[in-house]
Amino acid sequence: MVFDRITVNPAQINGQPCIRNMRLTVRRVIELVATYADRQELLQEYPELEEEDILQALHYTAACLDDRIISLPVNYETAA
């Protein structure tokens, strides 16, 4: 996939991936998607953000994750 809306500039926000050279990081977009249940409300609050920006941020994040398995301790007393 081509990420033509994701930009990385070492002089901007410590080189974090951003949306279209704006000071809006991919991480922030993912946080917003998790916070706003209604996508239209998100887009109203952030009018500079476009639907394709959100989709590319999601795809970019997924591409950056690897499929390693992390074992987490389970407390069986509280798990039930």
From TrEMBL:
Pfam family, one: DUF433
Superkingdom to which the source organism belongs: Bacteria
Stated name of the protein: DUF433 domain-containing protein
Protein's organism: Candidatus Venteria ishoeyi
